[in-house]
Amino acid sequence: MKVDTLILGAGAAGMMAATQTGGATLIVDHAARPGEKIRISGGGRCNFTNYGVEAGCFLSENPHFAKSALSRYTQWDFIDLIDRHGIAWHEKTLGQLFCDGKATQIVDMLRTEMTQAGAEFWLSTEIGEVHHDGTHFVTTLTRDGRPRQVAAHNLILATGGLSIPKMGATGLAYRIARQFDHEIVPTRPALVPFTFTGAALEPLAALAGVAAPARVTTGGTSFDEALLFTHRGLSGPAVLQTSSYWAEGQPIRIDLDPEDRIRSALRHTRQTEGRKSLSAALAPHLPQRLIAARLPQASTTRIGDQSDQALSEILAQFRDWHLTPAGTEGYRTAEVTAGGIATDGLSSKSMESRTVPGLYAIGEAVDVTGWLGGYNFQWAWSSGWAAGRAI
Ligand code: FDA
To answer: Which keywords belong to this entry (predicted)?
Structure first.
């Protein structure tokens, strides 16, 4: 069987590419259903993009690489698309856009668009070795136990990263890219909770379930969002964001009062209600369990007895908390994979290989990793669109 374009991976990026390619297109996936990560994303409502998408919200060895695709297929273009399909949506927080209903509406929309574009779609399909015979990329695709050789002028690698192997993530795109002499930026789990061990874990695990707004910093990069204590360590949006910038052995700093509001509130309480306990004075600002854990004497100490110096030391317990994670929860729970197919080898305009004409790489498989908040889907839409349009 001969096609113009073979797309490996029917996730967000592959499906978007298939809506744009001209000519005969075949899109294949080993999963029984397409876009499984879209389906489970955003708690089932898919955080499909963000009002604030810009290149600065992405990590890559080349921070400029994502600019072209992101500016040619923007968040507004995707919003237009879902509006045309009558999918209702809303902004949740920080520019994050979610479906009002189920995330599967987005999968259905992409399927409809692919069908209209004439793309053929094979699920539950195993992909064999790939080689180039001088004119075509050739591989064997096995569906229902029946192997078929397929030859394609163009091959789009869209099998994503290594995150959540249980959902069918494999390193296939990296393997094929390597085979065609493309470099792979070392991969690591990103947007992932931190784990702690031994004595460092005990105080955190004791607070499991407690959440609070915080600024979490590592290596000069900070995020102000919610922090969550877990039985294994730390999670929550601020932590997930920080994890993408974290290197093993590096400390993180937690500031539970980044706007510096508590100090003046405590001073005011000291003046007006000096008999109050420290824990009562702190209670409007911080979770009670956290106060008790960080300042065991707080319930028996009067706010009126604290000097300015003492207040500073008390606040430091919450504002200058240094911890060194033992590691992360790994690909098992990581929302994305950082690193991947090196951008040096790809055209930022078309996602085509600079050295192997007809070979393209898109989506999470490429060394472009977005922040939490809809940025990774926007990269999948933009890079998929750019490759599809170029063909
Ligand atoms: P994606 O992983 O979507 O698709 C790859 C496809 O290739 C899959 O269908 C897979 O089955 C297939 N495949 C892999 N190996 C194969 C092989 N060997 N043979 C055949 N097929 C193969 N992002 C965001 O912006 N907003 C959000 O709300 C969320 N939420 C979220 C929640 C959870 C739990 C996760 C794990 C991730 C998110 N993300 C997210 C990230 C987002 O899902 C991710 O960045 C995109 O799905 C990447 O799109 P791709 O198409 O590149 O890969």
So the answer is: FAD, Flavoprotein
